[in-house]
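Handout, section 4.2: multi-component inputs.
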Amino acid sequence: MNENLIPLDKLPVGTSGKVRKLTAKGNARRRMLDLGMIYDTTIESLRKSPAGDPVAYQIRGAVIALRSEEASKVFIKSVEH
Amino acid sequence: MGLTKKSTCLGALKGTVGVNIKSSIEIVVALAGNPNTGKSTVFNSLTGLNQHTGNWPGKTVSNARGGYRYRNKEYVLVDLPGTYSLLANSVEEQVAGEFICFGRPHATVVVTDATCLERNLNLVLQIMEITDRVVVCVNLMDEAARKRIVIDLERLSALLGVPVVGTTARSGRGLSELKSAIEGVAFGRIKTSPLKVDYGKTLERAVKELEERIGVLAGERINERWVALRLLEGDSPLIRSINSCLGFDLEADRQLRQKLADIRAEFMEKGLSSEEVRDVMVSAIVKTAEVIGRDVVTFNGKAHNRLDNRIDSVLTSKTFGIPIMVALLGVVFWITIQGANVPSALLADGLFWIEERLFVLFGRIGAPAWVADILVSGVYRTLAWVVSVMLPPMAIFFPLFTLLEDLGYLPRVAFNLDHYFKKACAHGKQALTMCMGFGCNAAGIIACRIIDSPRERLIATITNNFVPCNGRFPTLIALALIFFAGAAGALGSLAATLAVLAAIVLGVGITLLVSRLLSKTILKGLPSSFTLELPPYRKPQVGKVIVRSIFDRTLFVLGRAVAVAAPAGLIIWVMANTSIGGASLLAHGARMLDPFARLMGLDGYILMAFVLGFPANEIVIPILIMSYTAGGVMVEPGSLAEMRQLFVDNGWTWVTAVCMMLFSLNHWPCGTTLWTIRKETQSWKWTWVSFLVPTITGILLCIIAAQGARLLGLA
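Output:
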């Protein structure tokens, strides 16, 4: 259980991770789950917007942009390539 | 159909659902689906022009209904708001869920995106929990084929237990099969057995326990399993709707309440909080969708999104993202400015040719001269001005804008600009509503409905007016052409384009600044969470874009402008032709405003023109010309050089032009927009705020610019 978890906003562009934990509450949590961010879902960080935030992620076939506030509430295990 | 009003709960919920159903004659079909799945294309293709739009009663969520005939039966299609889910608590999801559950449609079509099927199945599975009468429409089959995605529709249908139809709605493919499937499900000819998501032993046992009692209490009126699930997750606004539909409080039943309490206690023992119960539910649905998706979808192309990714890496890149965005906007304006000149002149010639004939006609029928004057020089000439100045730019601008929208570029604009909106403590989607404002501020304000949080919606509403709409573009463009484009021709239009572009960038800057100011003062708060989808780029349907934007936007806006311009023309004519003490009412008004206007770098006539232009911004320049020429009637639109001479003769300098551009960008919203704000916010207070904020901003900016230029000795 001693995995190295990092918040999604710290995931370098071009790499992937698997969802381990959501710390968002209420509606924000709901919305993330609805996007398919459940345990073990693979998320790839695709690119940053011109100002560096938000960041676009590939989640279950869709491209979703998240602000750092939201992304920091998703904890992932980085996947080695 | 065996569904009477009573058994469908519609009697109780008519107020909320707002659809009158003549159940014996019409078949009601609900149309659900994720955003960006081409749901509205399916809707349009099925119903054609036979549509009505309005709001869900008491909610600011639009509701479109349309009808079609199929094999001698009338169908009513109800377009539900596009949602990813029915579980999160946005108004859209509540509206969609309530209609499917309590409106008891004879069939519910779920439109899904073939290129992103797995995620779309999430909604399909949720809807199948509420009703058995589901048809799944897998749309965008052509896009999927292009990306070499193959979907086994038969297998999907077998797995889901409901009919599945593949369509390409924009070319009409698969629609007759869809209609046939809807008929089959609505009349019970096709028997469905929807797949039930397995929520795991603990939850399933709890559901079973509750289901029984709910069945006893509610009878056939509602799906017990779905109600049981909602009770288990607790604290859902849907429970309130369920109770009001049933006419009694489910949890008032002692037996049910006891069962629920026992289950919750048992969950607590196992360490399952209510939030975790929700997590388990959503996870189970997503997992089921994943399993089905893996089974029926084959990706033959390697990295099917590669092209989209490559385009995005340019259009949203750090270096090029924002410059490209500004350049694209510039190109759109340049085409509009360049393209509108010739048709505008032709239209003006034509309309004024008619005017002469009208005078002749009035002369012939022996109407008094003042009647001819008031109707032709007053009403008709104002109308002719509005049409000839507005129609060509709109007929070019709106299709171009719709084209960008159709391509999927607008979400990228929101992506590029979101950071700045976040800094302004505003919602990321405000970038989208702002873009709509370029077309028409009233349309932009209606678009603010996509913002969930009331605080951020108000900010977006109040600041929408800071971007110039199509009614104000002609003013900006005319002034830019006159004072910033020394040379005629292409170079001149380029300089004018740059000046207009500068005005727009300024408008966006002010939008952000004022948004921040509002969220630090009267609308305090933090930006709410938001997720923005960047949907795949789509090949736009050029022909349909042109038709749609001309009918939906151009003619709509023009019609409204004409409706306000006609009475305005009458009033202005009367003001310009009624004299008291040797000067017209218009001149009196202008003289009164003059000292203040001078402070702002304008003159009394300009300010008066803005005041009289309240019904529609596009008549500001015509009124101004009319006042200067003092002829009491608006002059025929002459060449730009003549217009420049007229303005210079009346004491204009480039500072006057800059100040007028600034005030055009920042002043009260037009009558239509304010009326829309009143309707959307349901509050006079916020309507007044929306009036005052841009007006005060404009006055301040003009004073700063005028006095600054004076102090620096520039003018």
